[in-house]
Amino acid sequence: MEKREGEGEGEEEQVVNPWTVSAKGGGKIDYDKLIDQFGCQRIDQSLVDRIHRLTSRAPHVFLRRGVFFAHRDLSEILDAYERGEKFYLYTGRGPSSEALHLGHLIPFMFTKYLQEAFKVPLVIQLTDDEKCMWKNLTVEESQRLARENAKDIIACGFDVTRTFIFSDFDYVGGAFYKNMVKVGKCVTYNKVVGIFGFTGEDNIGKVSFPPVQAVPSFPSSFPHLFGGQDNLRCLIPCAIDQDPYFRMTRDVAPRIGYQKPALIESSFFPAMQGETGKMSASDPNSAIYVTDSAKEIKNKINRYAFSGGQDSIEKHRELGANLEVDIPFKYLSFFLDDDAKLEEIRKEYGAGRMLTGEVKQLLIQVLTELVERHCRARAAVTDEMVDAFMAVRPLPNMFN
């Protein structure tokens, strides 16, 4: 049974919410416990196989390797799709840095696959208002960062005829605001404190923000896209730290006449120094940025990527690498598309026949190619292209 808002929160040894990801003693996040705490479900192989069958496309590397590992009502979305019913995608970005790091790219890379595989429309929310309140940024700086981040998002290859990108500062109003008020009336102060852990020291803007992130999951918030299709289902690809927003949304939705949004949720992309949480924009050495040069990528991986290899070559040959803690191998499991090659590395490195330096060198090559490819795509994104994605207009190719 899905947990209602606030249930079990504040009682666990690990803290996972939209602003804090930490485990007791700086250890690893226990995703099995998190699934139980949040009340979502694990994605099993039968769901992956079903997506493969319905889309006639090979499952994305993030899906087949369990990066996206949990869901809410994904089966219901697939049931509806199989009946010929349409749905739309919704994801977002809180623009607090000049450029994205690889962890930020993951939901967008996966969302692009979902958009292409299911041929569905997508809305992308830029929560510039949220970052203004949480990061002590000015309104103007938050808006500027939103447009800069939009360029990185567009560079992932989204289809402008199926995609609407909006910033909260520019778009909130009208039907969107009406839905915010409906949600706000259904959530008490005590409930929102229970869900998000707000304290008396938090500004009131933070307390009032959750409905802003909730209502893009209701099609009536976008009358220019979905006018009259108020029963359209929504699927939200996101990291699991965003789950509190949508537990609240799913609790409220039936009370105001809307479908509950479905979610497909990812684990965290670990920091270079070890898998104790997620890559952070506040520590540049914990992250690979899409603006990093080939030299910077090489230096960061060689200096900071935590190794599960042994202290000496002799010991490593004898015992092999601890793949559970080895960051270079974990990064390859995200970005090396070749399953056979990854399995070969798993066997050889785990047995000690492959050295840490060899694995790091392969990772440097993979990430350098990824970042350089992204940089070329971003350089081609003009202000006019950003304006086109953010224009309030019908999407001509929405469900084709």
TrEMBL record:
Enzyme Commission number: 6.1.1.2
InterPro entries: aa-tRNA-synth_I_CS, aa-tRNA-synth_Ic, Rossmann-like_a/b/a_fold, Trp-tRNA-ligase
Enzyme class: ligase
Compartment(s) of residence: Cytoplasm
TM regions (residue ranges): none
Pfam family, one: tRNA-synt_1b
Protein family according to the UniProt entry: Belongs to the class-I aminoacyl-tRNA synthetase family.
Protein name stated in the entry: Tryptophan--tRNA ligase, cytoplasmic
